[in-house]
Design brief:
The chain is α/β, with parallel strands linked by helices. It is built from 13 helices and 15 strands. The protein has helices at 24-31, 57-70, 88-91, 106-111, 153-165, 177-185, 196-203, 233-252, 259-265, 269-274, 281-284, 291-299, 302-310, and strands spanning 3-7, 34-38, 47-48, 54-55, 76-80, 97-98, 114-116, 121-123, 125-130, 144-149, 169-174, 191-195, 212-214, 222-224, 227-229. Bound molecules: glutathione (GSH). Residues 39-42, 82-83, 101-103, 149, 152-154, 176-177, 180, 194-195, 198, 222 line the site of glutathione (GSH).
Length: 338
């Protein structure tokens, strides 16, 4: 046995309520606001700023969906969810969608009552350690204590990693990320593990970020995707095609600055479809035809969202890497907009 685990706080989620639902899109329209599940605070993804406004790539996906429906980015009720709640909140109808660093896995997709929409960020699980330890490879963590959050793929991958590499690790499991990060900060654990992008985000909150290193090796695939309740295909289409539209806009060079001009003047047939100047593409998903024009004018394309929240001008200074378009060497690829 190479892996042991301690559960620190034990509140388990109680059975979920099953409710009768109309179509989610119709519910959202008649409610007049989108209930969007986000994290409890991950800089760059979903994090309340000093004024309590949610900022980040995941929060911007919520705003993009609201703008597609209402032409108003403020028609979002942000619902902070701990990791354990992110699936249940969608299944029970507490939120219309969860946009919260959630990995698309087969079990979640097939057994847990949710559907994933489209990948917004390609991530992988990593480790952060204090520089002073001299550790530069996860296999050197022999005998280490590792802080981790409950209800995550992280917890499962850590166990797999220990078994596959015959590394003896002690997982110290916390209900919330705050507790896990604070435990690492206080020296309770030798390492902290989660999605590598989140480690980069949490490092910015350390007293001396330079004292901590994120090990290069990634031990898992974490394709992050917004998720909706299983079985409402129309709503799934709506959310998926808003994100696909953000990626397509970047491919086509449509930005917040030029979208309205391109809607009027572009001769490119794909641009015209995207911006509602030709075809009925908005109507296909129950929206107005200028849905993406409104989204891009207000929120920007995927590249603008990435740079604003995660890019070089932010404390995270993240490179696009695999989250670049294929023409720039990345994996971010939307299905065809036609
Ligand atoms: N991508 C993984 C991990 C997601 C995750 O969000 N993990 C922790 C990181 S410590 C977390 O809960 N972060 C944000 C929060 O608690 O609000 C999953 O889908 O399970």
């Amino acid at each position: 046995m190479t892996f042991s685990k301690k559960l620190f706080t034990g509140t388990m989620l109680i059975a979920f309520v099953s409710t009768a639902f109309a179509g989610t899109l119709e519910d959202v329209k008649s409610r007049g606001i989108l209930n969007c599940g986000v994290s409890e605070g991950v800089p760059g993804f979903s994090n309340p700023d000093a004024n309590g406004n949610w900022a980040g790539l995941d929060s911007d996906v919520c705003r993009a969906v609201a703008t597609a429906i209402f032409n108003d980015p403020n028609k979002v009720n942000f619902v902070p969810l701990a990791s354990r709640q992110k699936i249940l909140a969608v299944v029970s109808g507490q939120v219309d969608l969860t946009s919260r660093t959630t990995t698309w896995t087969m079990k979640r997709d097939t057994k847990e009552g949710v559907d994933f929409t489209t990948i917004v960020f390609y991530d992988g699980q990593g480790f952060m350690v204090k520089k002073s330890t001299g550790v530069d490879d996860a296999r050197q963590l022999q005998g280490a204590t590792v802080c981790v959050t409950a209800g995550t793929t992280t917890e499962l991958n850590l166990a797999d990693f220990a078994i596959a590499n015959d590394v003896k690790l002690e997982a110290v499991v916390f209900e919330g990320k705050k507790e896990a990060v604070n435990a690492y900060k206080s020296g309770r654990c030798d390492a902290l593990t989660t999605d590598s992008s989140q480690l980069a985000a949490f490092r910015t909150t350390m007293k001396k970020p330079g004292d901590h290193v994120i090990l290069k090796e990634l031990i898992s695939k974490e394709p992050l995707s917004p998720l909706v309740r299983h079985g409402d295909n129309k709503w799934k289409d709506t959310v998926a095609w808003v994100v696909n539209g953000l990626i397509t806009a970047e491919e086509l060079g449509v930005t917040s600055a030029n979208a309205s001009d391109m809607a009027k003047n572009s001769k490119n047939p794909t641009v015209k479809r995207l911006l509602g100047a030709s075809g009925e593409y908005g109507n296909y998903i129950g929206l107005e035809n200028d849905w993406m024009l409104n989204v891009i004018s207000t929120i920007g394309n995927y590249g603008e969202i990435f740079e604003r929240n995660l890019g070089q001008g932010t404390p995270l200074k993240m490179k696009r890497g695999v989250n670049a378009l294929p023409r720039d060497g990345g994996l971010l690829y939307a299905p065809a907009f036609r």
